[in-house]
Design brief:
Elements: H1 32-40, E1 43-53, E2 57-64, E3 69-80, E4 84-100, E5 104-105, E6 116-138, E7 142-146, E8 152-154, E9 159-166, E10 170-182
Antiparallel strand pairs: 1-5, 1-10, 2-6, 2-9, 3-7, 3-8, 3-10, 4-6, 4-9
Length: about 180
């Protein structure tokens, strides 16, 4: 019996087989963030600039207001003029202070919007922390990138906060990106 494997695109091309009798293939792999943004219009980026962050300030807050989908954090980028210890916390309660940040859809031209409460730019309070998810240090005038490999999943109603834990008063920048996924 002869078995023939074709390209699957209707072109009639047979799949190649090497001398070890393995099918020759190639692939292109990107992060889930890329595919969720490209295919579902639900990848978002949020940026915050705090001109006078102080040690112990929570300077970024994200609450997932979507009733049916989780928000998956793809990447957190932090940087400051000073050396800083950054902490990512689970948060509960109602946040106050800060300035509202509108998540930007990363698929240019998409009309989709995020269902979230995002605060930043200055100190945020009014909530409680409920477990530390991550921490990282950055040196002065440098940045750090935390890639949680889709392990920070914020369910509907859940929230996280990022703390400028130790460091002297100075400029701090935070960029968070992520996407919505089935709950």
């Amino acid at each position: 019996m002869l078995f023939q494997l074709f390209d699957g695109k209707g072109r009639g091309n047979s799949a190649g087989v090497n001398k070890e009798f393995r099918v020759e293939t190639s692939s292109s792999a990107n992060s889930r963030f890329y595919y969720r943004s490209r295919d579902n219009d639900d990848g978002y980026m949020m940026n915050s600039h705090d001109a006078d962050a102080e040690a112990g300030d929570y300077i970024f807050y994200f609450k997932n207001d979507n009733a049916t989908q989780n928000f998956v954090v793809d990447r957190i980028v932090v940087g400051a003029v000073q050396s800083v210890l950054w902490k990512v916390w689970r948060a509960t309660g109602t946040a106050t202070g800060g300035t509202a940040i509108t998540p930007v859809n990363t698929k240019v031209g998409s009309g989709a919007t995020a269902s979230a409460t995002v605060l930043g730019v200055s100190a945020i309070s009014g909530f409680s922390t409920d477990g530390q998810l991550a921490s990282m240090r950055t040196s002065a005038a440098n940045h750090g990138v935390f890639i949680p490999n889709d392990s920070i999943i914020i369910p509907p109603g859940g929230a996280i906060a990022i703390e400028y834990d130790t460091g002297t008063t100075g400029i701090a920048e935070i960029m968070v990106n992520g996407f919505y996924d089935a709950a």
